[in-house]
C-alpha cells in the first residue's frame, strides 16, 4: 500500500513490537471445546466440514436447528444476509447448497447416508432443508481432505490455456450447466471488461461499500471475535501492507476514495490473469434449483486443487443492475447464470486461511 513506508517510519520499532504483527488464519483458531452442548459421535465433525463451504464476504449464512441426534434442519441466517449486493438472497441459497454438498460428502466418508427434505419455498424462508443421517452400507467414501483444503485463491494465476483433459475432469458429466470461456475467446474479453466495470459501479455505490466495511475484520482480535468475514489473510494482503491494515485501518477507511480505487485496481489486476471463466447456470430461480446449483458449484470447486487450478468467484456483474441485464445476451447463454468464476493454474497452491465459526455457535435447539 502506498502509505506503508511512511507509516512504518512514523510508527517506529517500539510500536511495532506491541502491534498486531501477523495475519490471523484458520490454524490460529483455538480448539472448539464446547461444554454446553452434547454431540453424538461424528456430529460435530460433520457440521464443521459442512461449514467449510464458501459464501459471499465469508458471512457463513447458515445455522442448524438440532431436532435430535443425526436429525437437523439447515437454516437460513437472516443476520448474515448481504442486502446491498444480494437483495433477493440468491447467493445465500447458493452458499447453503454448497454447505449441503459438503455435508453429504462428509457423511458418506463415515458411513452415513443423508435423507433430505426441502422445506423452503422462497429464498427468505428460515428453514431450508431437513436432513436425517442414518447408517448405510456400500457407500463410496469421500476424501475429506478435499473439503479441508479447498481455498479461494485471488492472485498469482498463470495465463496458461486450460488443458482439455483438466477441463473434462472438472466438468465431469455436468457440462449441461457449466460453460467454459477460454482466454482466447471474445466472451472472455467481454467478461474481463464488464467485471472491472461492475467492480467500479459497486465500489462507488455507498450502500454496497458500507456493507463490505461491516464484514472486513482488520485486526486479529476482531477476526478471532467473529470467526467470519474478510480477514487480511483471506484477502491475501500479507507483509507490510497487511500490517498497516491490521493496525491503522478501520471500517471508516473502507468508505474513503483511496480504498475504493485500490479495490478497482486490484480487480483490474486479477482479471488480467487467468485461463478463462467458468459460468454455472440453473434451469430457473426456484429454491430447489438454486440449492442444486450451489451443490454443483461445490462439487467442481472440490476438484480444482487436484489439478493445481484456482477458482475465484467474481459475481459483481450479476450484482449490479447495469451489467447484469447484458450478461446472458453477450455470452449467448439462455439459462439463469448463477456463478461467474475466474479460473487459472497456480505454481504453488496455498493452504486455506479463511475463518469458520465454532460449530456450537451455529447450533440452536
Give your account of this protein's structure.
By secondary structure, this protein is α+β, with helices and mostly antiparallel strands. It folds into two domains: about 25-150, NADH Oxidase (3-Layer(aba) Sandwich), CATH 3.40.109; about 165-345, NADH Oxidase. The chain has 14 helices and eleven strands. The strands form three sheets. The protein has a five-stranded mixed beta sheet, covered by helices on one side. A four-stranded antiparallel beta sheet has the order 5-8-10-9. β1 (about 60-70) and β2 (about 70-75) form a beta hairpin. The longest helix has 20 residues, at about 90-110. The radius of gyration is 21 Å and the shape is globular.
Assess the beta-strand content as a share of residues. Answer: 15-25%
CATH architecture of the largest domain: 3-Layer(aba) Sandwich
How many beta strands in the DSSP annotation? 11
Distance between the termini: 46 Å
User: Considering the protein shown, what is the CATH homologous superfamily of the largest domain?
Assistant: NADH Oxidase
Number of helical segments? 14
Q: In sequence order, what are the helices and strands, one letter per element?
A: HHEEHEEHHEHHEHEHHHEHEHHEE
User: Into how many domains do the coordinates divide?
Assistant: 2
* CATH class category label of the largest domain: Alpha Beta
Q: Helix fraction?
A: 40-55%
Mean pLDDT: 94
Rg over alpha carbons: 21 Å
Q: Which runs of at least 5 residues are low in confidence (pLDDT < 50)? A: none
Query: Helix- and strand-based class?
Result: alpha+beta
Across the major sheet, the strand order is: 3-4-2-1-11
Largest sheet: 5 strands, mixed
CATH fold naming of the largest domain = NADH Oxidase
Shape: globular
